[in-house]
Amino acid sequence: KAGVTQTPRYLIKTRGQQVTLSCSPISGHRSVSWYQQTPGQGLQFLFEYFSETQRNKGNFPGRFSGRQFSNSRSEMNVSTLELGDSALYLCASSLDGRGQETQYFGPGTRLLVL
Amino acid sequence: GQQLNQSPQSMFIQEGEDVSMNCTSSSIFNTWLWYKQDPGEGPVLLIALYKAGELTSNGRLTAQFGITRKDSFLNISASIPSDVGIYFCAGHSGAGSYQLTFGKGTKLSVIP
Predict the structure, then answer these.
(1) Residue of A nearest to B102 (CA)
(2) Quick check: B95 contacting A, CB < 8 Å?
(3) Helices (H) and strands (E) in chain B, counts
(4) CB nearest to B42's CB, from A48, A58, A106
(5) Which of A43, A111, A48, A44 is nearest to A82 (CA)?
(6) Terminal alpha carbon distance of chain B
(7) Within a 10 A sphere around the Cβ of B12, how many other Cβ atoms?
(8) Is A83 left (phi over 0), alpha (psi -120 to 50) or beta?
(9) Residue-level pLDDT at A38
């Protein structure tokens, strides 16, 4: 069974631009979560999607948004990029995101904002 | 919000030595997970713990879910060079949707 895949793996953007990252969960997994990882803040929860609906959201500004498609694939979008948005963005999937489940992570997208 | 205190922040050990790291939380978790992350990669699940007091092994790795549900530890026995990486603990409250709270990580260096 294929793992979580994320595209692209690396991305360079400039301030003010916007970016879209993509995540394909493990087959059969319907819950997709996104995390931002930086050296200073560590791993922080962005949001979680289930059945095309955002079910939970972390403490990030509205410039960070996402969506989920009917096949459970998910995208996240960051508008008006700032230097501080440079980070590793990780996607994780689980069966339905409830109770005692395990989340499996993708390799991440490394975003550099210049 | 919830916070996880993970210690130590970093460790330098000789190959063959045992390693221990732990996490404590200010609130209760129903699931504790331990991940390992190599540079440039996403975290890889090592051990999942679902019950207070549970002790689970995965090869040379052993982890325990604290009885208070506010702590967990991970032991690595007879370390080898490929154990190098950053180890993260993560907790899930089990309420509502899936949101993991992570520790800051323990960076492990193994000296051959």
Answers:
(1) A43
(2) no
(3) 0, 11
(4) A106
(5) A111
(6) 40
(7) 9
(8) alpha
(9) 93
Please provide the DSSP assignment of B74-92 as one string: EEE-S--GGG-EEEEEEEE
Whether chain A has a CB inside 8 Å of the CB on B45: the answer is yes
The pLDDT, as a whole number, for residue A100 is 65
Residue B48 sits at the chain A interface (C-beta within 8 Å): yes
Tens digit of pLDDT for each residue in B38-75? 988 899 999 999 999 999 999 999 999 999 999 999 99
- State the DSSP H helix or E strand holding residue B16, giving kind and residue range, or none if neither: none
Distance CA B56, CA B65 (A): 9
Bridge-based pairing state of the strands A53-57 and A42-50: antiparallel
- What are B22's two structure tokens? 């732990």
> Per-residue pLDDT tens for A6-36?
999 999 999 999 999 999 999 999 999 999 9
Which of B99, B101, B104 is the best residue to mutate to test the A interface, defined by the most A CB atoms within 10 Å of its own CB? B99
Determine the length of chain A: 114
